[in-house]
Write a structure and sequence with these properties.
Layout (H helix, E strand, L loop, with lengths): L1 H9 L4 H23 L6 H25 L5 H8 L2 H12 L6 H17 L7 H24 L5 H20 L10 H38 L1 H13 L6 H17 L5
Helix pairs in contact: 1-9, 2-8, 2-9, 3-7, 3-8, 4-7, 4-10, 5-7, 6-11
């Protein structure tokens, strides 16, 4: 997604323009799937929770993530986002009553050490680093809140409501600040890829995988995301990370994969 975003920016789009297209297209497609498959929509408390998650959590995470790409390399932003498993672990202990075992405390320490190493070596301004970490914080609260409020809700219905409400929030914001859209076809193609590949296809594939392998394995497999982003940013954008940052990123991803496992 970071690679597609850079292509959209190069064609004249800004953060607001990218998010308008992303959430509006994704919300419309997911709503169409809901109607075509006649799946029940959320109701009551679950509906209210999904509305809050979309209008505040998802929008906040996306704004921080896509804005950070203007101030830091795509690889660094992708790695910073993966501070979220560490933050989720701490929030779950504070608000969901999950126990912090000795093993998990060790993994948290390793993750914090990895984050510290990742922040060294340049390739990002303080503003970009702060926004990358803010994206991780928003995502962590989003996950913990969703785990508590949407545990028994249909995942596709939840994702659809979240995307629709995120689109509504961004469209309201666009009334106060006019979004910029691309002026070239290849930048529009990148926007389409963000909506179709990085949002709709990603959500549907993750849910399908979740049913087959369970949440722990699915979460561990998702740590491949920043690895792919770093590799593509190097091949397509000429970006690179310092060795110390790569080492820190490896520690962050290793701890994220381990934290995804259920405690013994």
């Amino acid at each position: 997604m970071a690679i597609f975003a850079r292509a959209a920016y190069a064609g004249g789009a800004d953060v607001l323009g990218v998010l308008v297209v992303r959430f509006a297209a994704a919300g419309a497609i997911l709503a169409g799937i809901m109607l075509a498959t006649r799946r029940p929509w959320l109701r009551g408390r679950a509906l209210r929770a999904a509305i809050l998650m979309g209008a505040i959590g998802y929008v906040g995470q996306a704004l921080c993530y896509f804005t950070a790409l203007n101030y830091a390399s795509a690889g660094l932003v992708a790695l910073l986002l993966y501070a979220y498993p560490t933050l989720v672990c701490l929030l779950a202990a504070a608000f969901l009553g999950e126990r912090l075992t000795r093993g998990r405390l060790v993994l948290l320490a390793v993750s914090f050490a990895g984050i510290a190493l990742t922040l060294g070596g340049g390739h990002g301004t303080p503003q970009g680093i702060a926004l990358g970490l803010a994206a991780a914080a928003f995502y962590s609260v989003y996950i913990v809140f969703g785990a508590r409020e949407l545990a028994n809700a249909d995942p596709l219905a939840s994702a659809t409501v979240v995307c629709i409400c995120a689109a509504a929030t961004i469209l309201v914001a666009s009334l106060f600040r006019e979004p910029r859209f691309p002026g070239v076809w290849w930048s529009w193609a990148a926007l389409g890829a963000i909506a179709l590949v990085s949002t709709v296809a990603a959500i549907l594939a993750f849910f399908a995988g979740l049913k087959r392998v369970g949440p722990a394995v699915a979460s561990i497999a998702s740590t491949l995301e920043p690895v792919v982003t770093v590799a593509l940013a190097w091949m397509l954008l000429g970006e690179s990370l310092a060795p110390i940052q790569l080492a820190g990123g490896a520690l962050v991803l290793a701890s994220a994969a381990s934290l995804a496992r259920k405690p013994s």
